[in-house]
Every structure is written in structure tokens, then in C-alpha cells.
Amino acid sequence: MAIIKLYGSKHATCTRRVATILHELKVPFELVEVDLMAGEHKFPAYLEKQPFGQIPYIEDEGFILYETRAICRYIAAKYPASGLIPTEPKANAIFEQAAAAEITNFDPSASKLVFETVLKPIFYKTAADAAVVEAQLAILEKKLDAYDVILSKHRYIAGESLTLADLFHIPYAPLLAAGGSDIMTQKPNVAKWYKELIARPSWLAYEGGVTTTTSY
């Protein structure tokens, strides 16, 4: 049986998010490295599979899928026993609510902060824009106030069980610390939740970069 092929870059945030979900579910996969520095993601052969020229995408026995969160949902749906996507209607609605909160309330500021404080210095040899950092930290702090209220009521953001909505927050949440911010540990309930997420074996497995994983 063919294993899933993950086309991406081993150090890229979205590639690692997909790999984390694959590891969480113990799904074997092959990483097919895409050379971003050479612009391979803009080559015609790549654009045939991913018309936006972004990473990653997967190939599962001929089935092609791109967009990180869609890929993660597909994988979790193939393995429903994991519970990463609840199926009971009300639980599923709360899950979708939590997933929407991640992409609309957490990701915009977190991703901008990671770009400014981590990616710009490494890849563009440019210092972070202090004004952008200050503004985005202020926005994110207010968002995390709401997270702290949510997490005061239950262990995870969609209830008492881990879901994709929690895992979607990595890798950006840990990278905020790499950029010099302790914002994820300032609020007690957020800190407890965050520390549990980054201690998961699925996250720790790829600290040195995503690699092909065929056994667990």
C-alpha cells in the first residue's frame, strides 16, 4: 500500500503542521523536499499540483490535496477513531467554532510576529520592524485574554478532548518564544494548555525538521 507523500520543506511551518498531525495519528508518510530557495514551488510541474505555488500539498494514492488545514482535516477524517474531529453535531459545532477562532483570532497576529522576529532575520537578514511587533503583540494579547477565559472552563479549546483546533496552533505558538516573546505563558490557563501541546511527542518529533516517517 502506497504511503502519503508530503511535498514541502522540512523546516517550513505549514509542512511541520501537517507532519505533526500525521505523527499524531501514526500515519506513515514520505517527505518530498521542495527546494524553496531554487523556486521549485513556482515551477510549472509543481503548479500543476498546487496552482497557488505554495507548500505543502499531499498525494495519497493519486489524490492531490493542498491547503494545510484541509490536508489535516482529510487525514483526521480518514482516521475518525482519533476523535480529532468530533462527529456528534454539537461537539462538531464547538470544534468548528474553535478552529475558526484559531484561523481568525490567533493565526493573523501570530504569523506576522513569527515572520518579523524569526523569519526576517534568518531569511532576509533584516531586523524586525519594532512597530509591527508592538502592534501585533497588543492584538494577540487581547485575543489570548479570550483564550484564557475559554480554557478556564475546559482543558482544550473545544472541550475536554484534544482536537485539530488545538493542534492547528502549532507551529506558530512555539515560534513566538523563538522570536523572544513569552506571550504564550503569561496567562495561566493559556500557559497550561500551551505547555501540554508543545510537550506532545508529535510536536517534538520534528524539532530538527520534518523527515520521512514510516514507523512509529
From TrEMBL:
Protein's GO biological process: glutathione metabolic process
Protein name: glutathione transferase
Species the sequence originates in: Mycena rosella
Key words of the record: Transferase
Catalysed reactions listed for this entry: RX + glutathione = an S-substituted glutathione + a halide anion + H(+)
CC annotations in GO: cytoplasm
Top EC class of this enzyme: transferase
Gene Ontology molecular function terms on file: glutathione binding; glutathione transferase activity
PROSITE patterns recorded: GST_CTER (PS50405), GST_NTER (PS50404)
Assigned EC number: 2.5.1.18
